[in-house]
Design a protein that fits this description.
The chain is mainly beta and about 80 residues long. About 10% of the residues lie in helices and about 35% in strands.
Length: about 80
């Protein structure tokens, strides 16, 4: 059976995994793609989907004295499956 390369493999149903991501969120709330770092991951198969998610995510920009500023964030990204019944 061919695995879908866009989905990380989780061992068994109901499995959970957490990837810790570090990135810079810019002044318009987008992640700077070159800043994305995977700090912790249960398997390399989770890294690329996490990077793609981060690159497409939108955030409310951080503010300092009322002005939007770039900020370094650490985000835990949860992956989970549900039983397929």
């Amino acid at each position: 059976m061919k695995q879908d390369r866009d989905r990380p493999t989780l061992l068994g149903t109901g499995a959970m995994a957490v990837v810790l991501l570090e990135a810079i969120v810019d002044t318009v709330g987008r992640v700077e793609p070159s800043s994305i770092r995977i700090l912790a991951s249960p398997s390399p198969s989770f890294d690329e989907p996490t990077r793609r998610w981060a690159a497409s995510a939108r955030f409310r920009p951080a503010r300092l004295d009322g002005r939007a500023v770039r900020v370094l964030v650490n985000l835990p990204i949860d992956f989970a499956t549900t039983s397929g019944g």
